[in-house]
Amino acid sequence: MELQSKIVAGLERISEVFKSLLWEKAKVYGISPIQIQILLFVSNHSSNLCNVSYLAKEFNLTKPTISDAVRVLLKKGLLEKDFSPSDNRRYNVQLSSGGVQLVGELSDYASPVLQILEHIDEEEMKQIYGTLSRLIYQLNQKGIIQVQRSCFGCRYYKGDKKGTHFCSLLDKKLAGPEIRLDCPEFESKHVES
Ligand code: SF4
User: Fold this and answer.
1) What is residue 117's three-state secondary structure?
2) What's the chain's average pLDDT?
């Protein structure tokens, strides 16, 4: 097997691990893996990203699938609607106090993976992170990952072939590990259609 195919097989196995870790939490708390992912996303992203359309892109799922999951979370009192002041048919969602409490129980779902990473040498970790961030960016460029909030797709990012990274918003050079995959200040360098 070629090395590329082995890496793809490895990534596939790791993706299964995340699914299985989410399912373990899902069974304990009686909610589905996608509902957990929505709660975790809402807990650490700004309100303007927390609506059905954006969540569907974020998780590469259809709007009806996300809409059903959000409806259940609203019904369970884990999410609340935050209506737009200009259009009362449009709303974002936010965590209720029950949602905040549950997120506290769910947010460690990936800890078995984190514990393994803690034992990996720092240089190796930097290389893994660099490779992963480029892979994610290129998958976004091909339209396979729809949502992009990383430096490489950001209008404030400047890089060169020597591997220098610079953020013109923060006005500083970014070392490899400082490249962000999910930046709150991200603005797309492409005009959104
Ligand atoms: S604003 Fe954020 S995403 Fe954009 S270049 Fe700076 S650190 Fe990266």
Assistant:
1) helix
2) 93
